[in-house]
Structures are given as structure tokens and as C-alpha cells.
Amino acid sequence: MSAVLEIEGLQKTYRSRRRGTRHALAGFDMRVEAGQVHGFLGPNGSGKTTTLRTLLGLIKPDGGRMAILGREVPRALPEVAGQVGAIVESPQFFPHFTARDTLDLLASAGDVPRHRVAEVLELVGLRDRADERVKTYSLGMKQRLAVASALLKNPKLLILDEPANGLDPGGIREMRALMADLAAAGMTVVLSSHILGEVQLICDSVTIISLGRRVATGPVAEVLAQHSSGTVRLRLEAVTDLPAAADALTRAGVQVATRHDDHLLLRGVDKPATVTRILADQGLYLSELAPVAVDLESVFLELTATAPVPGQHRQVDESAGAETAATAPTQGGWGV
Ligand SMILES: Nc1ncnc2c1ncn2[C@@H]1O[C@H](COP(=O)(O)OP(=O)(O)OP(=O)(O)O)[C@@H](O)[C@H]1O
Description:
Layout: E1 3-16, E2 20-33, E3 37-41, H1 48-55, E4 63-68, E5 71-73, H2 77-80, E6 84-87, H3 99-109, H4 115-123, H5 139-151, E7 157-161, H6 169-184, E8 188-192, H7 196-202, E9 205-210, E10 213-219, H8 220-226, E11 232-236, H9 242-251, E12 255-259, E13 264-267, H10 272-281, E14 286-291, H11 296-304
Parallel strand pairs: 3-8, 3-9, 6-7, 7-8
Antiparallel strand pairs: 1-2, 1-4, 4-5, 9-10, 11-13, 11-14, 12-13
The protein binds adenosine-5'-triphosphate.
Residues 14, 16, 19, 22, 24, 42, 44-50, 317 line the site of adenosine-5'-triphosphate.
């Protein structure tokens, strides 16, 4: 597969007299293959917006390299800009314009053929409301219009910062369907989001950033598998044997996390054969020993050390990289 987006060792430090020095990106890496819907995840203040703005030439990096569609940027930005659609900050639209007027204006400013306006209105599901004024639109409709404006150029790479922000569940589902359609049509989509359940459903692959560094990347299923917490579900042929199984496992040092009517949840099991042997020694027979799927949210919380801690409020920038998780502060709560 070829990379549509490559970032290596990206560095960005903000310096201001008032706020001092901030290392927003500390050698950040990211790679997105063609045709993927790629989730870009990180806690508040971890460097997502800085990365996207740097990529689009809006911020000058202090080091590292970036390439879009195989061309080094920012040097080749003028050549690749026509193939990149991006919504990095909430776009402002004229409230008295209709969606069609808005897109017509953008199309003529960007040398885009007029017929493309009807196509993108159809694509984002705004066709039937295209002639109403933007000021009458819901947040979800404004988001669609923003996506439509980014699609006008029929880009090869679409970058969306928080596209599902503020959408209701129906709106999120429609956004998900739209992303899938775009990917099926061959477009590569990078989307940053805080809605991890959605990312897990929408995205093929992810990059997780914490404190300006990549802490995980890969296909969603692989990232989930790599960070499986070693939690397994155990069922026995006879449910009446569960208490005896729980006792035997506990005596043998296996952590029985929770006991349920028809199964046990065990934690920290790295060798399932150990469990099988302990139970067989007691004459107890398994009917199921299956890893319990971890979700992206728990992987994110583990890697960025941002899991809530009762009574504490996590402050912005206090996420921890995987390699520093043991020493970095692990304040809880969802700050900002
Ligand atoms: N113009 C700026 N001047 C100084 N510091 C900045 C500036 N922009 C961002 N930062 C700092 O750089 C770090 C990364 O910020 P950035 O906005 O890239 O994070 P983010 O992951 O997009 O966060 P959020 O999810 O809250 O939008 C933060 O510490 C932030 O305070």
C-alpha cells in the first residue's frame, strides 16, 4: 500500500513571553495508507490541531518531515493543495446564503466546475435543503455543508477535525455512512475525534497521540488486540461448578475479576493453558475460555493515562506517553 500521508519526527515548540515554552510536538510520527479512514486520537492539548495545521502549512514546524501523496510539504503544498480537502477549524458561512449559494461561490473562487456543487450536495445529504438559508440549519447540517465545501475539489485526501462534534446520534450515524461512502470511492480520510466508539466503528486504522508523541498506530483491530488487557471470560460445562472453579483459580494466583451467574471474568491471563490445567486438576471442564474484546476507549485511556481518578480533575497536557506512563502524572477526570 502507498502512503497518502507521512509524518516523521515532527517537532513544534510554541514560545511566548507570557506563556513560556510549550513542546506541542516532540518527534511525532504518522503514516496513513491510501483508501483508509484513519482516526487521529489524543487527549485535549496532545498536539492534534498543531499536527493538522502544520501539515496544511498554517504553522511552521521546528523539525521533522512531512509528505502528502508522496510530495514533501510544505515545499510542494502549492502542487498538492488541490488534492487535499480540510476542515480544521469550524468554517464560518454567510448566514443569509443558502448552501447552494455558498458552494457556488466557493466553486467559482476555486475554479471548480458548477456541476460539482449538485454532486457534493447529494453526497452529504443536503440536496433537499440546499436552497434554504444557512442560518436556519442545525449544527449537523452546517457540518455537512462544511464537508461538502471540502469535497468540492474532489480531493484524494480529506482531513476533518472533529466532524461529529455536536451531532446527535442520527447525525453521527449519517456522518459514519458518508465516511464509508467516501472511502469506498477511493478517498483517504483522516479524522480527529473524541468520540472513540464512533472512531472504532468508522475507522480502518488509527494513530493515538499523547504529549506530542505517537503512542499507538495500526489497523483498529490490531491496536485493540495488542492492548488486550488479558481479560478472559470463562464458562464451565456445569454452572454449578463456577464457585469451585473460582476458588481453585484464586488459590493458584489467577485474578478472578468478577463472578457472574453463568461465567467468570479473569484478568491478567497471559497463558490460557494455565487456566485449563488448574481446572482439569480439579476435574472441572471448560466450555469457553475467550478473550474479552477491549474497546478503543479503554486502549486510549490506558495509553494516554487519562482514565478518570475519583476526586481528581485531569488538567490539559497531563496525558502520558506509553513509555512514560509509569512516571508521568496520571490525574483523572476529563479536563478542559
Ligand atoms: N498558539 C499557541 N501558542 C502557545 N501554545 C499553543 C498554541 N497552540 C497550541 N498550543 C499548545 O500546544 C499544545 C498542543 O495543542 P493542540 O491544540 O495541538 O492540541 P489538541 O490535541 O488539538 O487539543 P484539543 O483536543 O484540546 O483541541 C497544548 O499545550 C497547547 O496549549
